[in-house]
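Action item from last meeting closed. Structure (168 res):
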């Protein structure tokens, strides 16, 4: 497997901690991890396997570092790249806009030609609306550290096993 570029933005550390767990599951030697506060989107060009992690803030908005990072995608060609997404949100207090940031990022990755892998069933979540849910599946791994933190490690482990064979 080629090195995976894992990019995350995190306000209070939940997405960062999920990113570390994903890196550990993949094997630290297989992953280069970036806090997007410290790089720009041109770094994506160095990787054929990309994992993007984001929490949702405001009301269905991008986390603040993602607000700065995502516009840079317009200058990056993701054609031929395999991209997997994970999102952190709160399905109880933000049930109408659960994980919307992951939906926003998904749209941009598709627009730039990336092949998205790693969709995840919506079973086991209780929410009313999400731009990250299409046809009964989330477009990436859905994590809720606020309400279902006990499920996070198991979900990560299952998802990483699922996406690993699809990485180049
Ligand atoms: C002020 C505030 C706004 C939030 N807005 C949303 C939202 O619109 N949708 C959602 O799914 N989660 C929302 N959340 C939940 C966060 O995404 C969640 O706590 C996440 O784990 C934070 O991850 P981070 O520490 O990596 O930023 C919000 C949380 C706060 C405190």
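Sequence:
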């Amino acid at each position: 497997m080629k090195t995976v570029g894992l990019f995350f933005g995190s306000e209070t550390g939940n997405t960062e901690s999920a990113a570390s767990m994903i890196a550990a599951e993949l094997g630290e030697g297989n992953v280069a991890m970036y806090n997007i506060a410290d790089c720009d989107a041109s770094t994506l060009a160095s990787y054929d396997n990309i994992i993007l992690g984001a929490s949702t803030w405001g009301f269905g908005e991008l986390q603040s570092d993602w607000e700065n990072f995502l516009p840079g995608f317009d200058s990056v060609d993701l054609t031929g790249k395999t991209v997997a997404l994970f999102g952190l949100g709160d399905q109880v207090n933000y049930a109408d806009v659960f994980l919307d940031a992951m939906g926003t990022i998904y749209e941009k990755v598709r627009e730039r030609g990336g092949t998205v892998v790693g969709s995840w069933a919506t079973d086991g979540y209780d929410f009313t609306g999400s731009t990250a849910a299409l046809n009964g599946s989330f477009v990436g791994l859905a994590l809720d550290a606020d309400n279902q933190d006990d499920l996070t490690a198991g979900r990560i482990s299952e998802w990483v096993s699922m996406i690993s064979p699809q990485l180049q």
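Note appended to the action item: The pocket of flavin mononucleotide is lined by residues 10-15, 55-60, 63, 88-90, 94, 97-100, 145-146 (CB under 6 Å).
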